[in-house]
Amino acid sequence: TEIYTLSLHDALPICPMAELHSDQGTSPLFPDLPTPLAQGRGRIRPRARLLKTIGAELISSEVVAVIELVRNSYDADATHVQLVFDSPETPSSATLEIRDNGHGMSREVLLGPWLEPATDWKSADNKAATGGERSPDGRRRLGSKGVGRFAAQRLGSHLELRTRAVPSANELIARFDWSALEKDQYLDQVRIPWREAPATHVEPCGTHLRIRRLRDTWTPERFEKLKLGLSRLISPTMREAFRITVVINGAPEDVRPAIDATHAMYAVDGHVGADGSCVLNYTDVNGVKETWERTVTWPPEELPSCGPFQFRISAWDLDREPLSHFLKKTGSKLGLRDFRRVIRDHSGVSLYRDGFRILPYGEPDNDWLRLDRRRVNNPTMRLSNNQILGSIQLSADANPMLRDQTNREGLVANDAYRHLTEVVVDLLTYLETRRFAARRAMNVDWQKRSTSLPLLESSDAQEHIDKLIGGLESDSEGKKANVQELRQAVSDFRDSTTNAVRHYASLAAVGQMSGLVFRQLQHPVRQIRSDLEDRRAHV
Questions:
Q1: By the 8 A CB rule, do 152 and 15 touch?
Q2: Exposure class string for 239-267: b at 16+ Cβ within 10 A, else e
Q3: Torsion angle in degrees (nearest 10) through CA of 400, 404, 406, 412
């Protein structure tokens, strides 16, 4: 046991200044400077609270933390992951278990790479039997920075890890008290108790994480957010190979997407090659199917590019008439309100790398392609972020310039990332152009817009007036000319009144827009005024 618990740091002095004079009398470390009174080499020793920064503070939410641990199960070749919540409404007594049937960990892996922050165990340079960028079963590993396992700290203050590797008959148990990281000590002074004993659970292999004293209260709204995130975590092509089940107080539920993106009002899919050539397949609710070959914007070979990828972008019109037409034609059981809510919850273009989603792209409030801003200038032609559901399928091997940020929530905003956004918007333009033409082909009255302003020419009162005038015309032939003149006067009055109402309605809309704009400008104007007053006071 001591072989694994004793580290080289135990033989080093506690004070990081202990080596200050170690190079006294040797060759100068700074040959370009005068002879020093003392010289030496210091060493960096991180405090234990560094892990708190990595886990509890760097990971933005409890949902992201759970997803990060599910990704680790995927890297371990698991085919099924269970998230078991017990009494989640009471954080002090609640527990969360994450169970997978992956290949588990040996003693060397647990006490080595698993306990090493920022390890390179999953990097391409590691040639160990169970390490490297590929799992034992050949999966392209999602993690490579060696910090994802500390997401457990974001979820709760205590962690018990049980793991069993094939073909071992024993299991390893390790316990973590994350509250110990609050103490003022160095990271290499923290000790993690562990033991090896005959396996007590039925599974031949896998890893179980049991987290206690949860930091958050898991409300129904939070569970819905978790299920939504998990339903979009895996690309549609991989859902059969990796299953996720959420168990809440004993009630299991397999995570599945709430909407089938293949049943879209308009859709375009295809692939983009490494040279910018692409094939696009277009379909719509009218039964139209088309295939195009195009070339998208691509930089020269010496400049960075995003690399090849596959894509699918589905879109819907959310207006009452066309959406009702779509739901009726497809036989959907959802009503207008429910379908709009589902589209809103799932809207956005998601990025998938090797089958797994890259957060936060595709979240409803993450308009990373700036589609809403783009739609302002041409609302009839352009699609907004809440109208589309898209997926971009990347490969880590074919897209090496698209790298993760350290917090695993997004890609580094380099030239390759900017090129990717340009190409995706370019592909979306093809869909928008074809959609614009398809809308005209639908057998739908697009002019039926909901409005609170009645049109006077279609009102019951006007029909009654016309009927009375018709009666006057039949009473006396001599009065017919006067009646015709009265009819014309009423018609002119009706037209002028209708035009006036429409004019004031447009002015009201402009007024509402102006009010919104002016409210948005109030804060920056006040800030500018305050800055000018400060400058004037110092002149």
A1: no
A2: beebebebebeeeeeebebebebeebbbb
A3: 90
Q: Are strands 251-254 and 266-272 parallel, antiparallel or unpaired?
A: unpaired
Cα distance between residue 440 and residue 438, in whole Å: 5
Handedness of CA 59, 81, 256, 246 (dihedral sign): negative
Nearest to 61 by CA among 408, 533, 454, 320: 408
Give the C-alpha distances (Å, rounded to integers) separating 216 from 89, 193, 221, 442, 457.
Answer: 9, 26, 13, 49, 60
Among candidates 444, 374, 389, which has minimal Cα distance to 266?
A: 389
Contacts from 122-125 at CB under 8 Å and sequence distance 24+?
122/75, 122/146
pLDDT along the chain (539 residues), means of 10: 37 42 58 82 80 67 88 89 94 93 89 79 61 75 67 89 88 88 77 88 84 91 90 76 92 82 86 93 91 90 89 91 86 85 87 87 88 88 92 90 79 93 94 88 54 45 61 58 66 68 67 60 65 66
Q: Which residue has the tokens 């992956």?
A: 102
Cα torsion at 389, 151, 80, 269 (round to 10°)?
A: 20
Altogether, the residues listed in the chain come to a count of 539
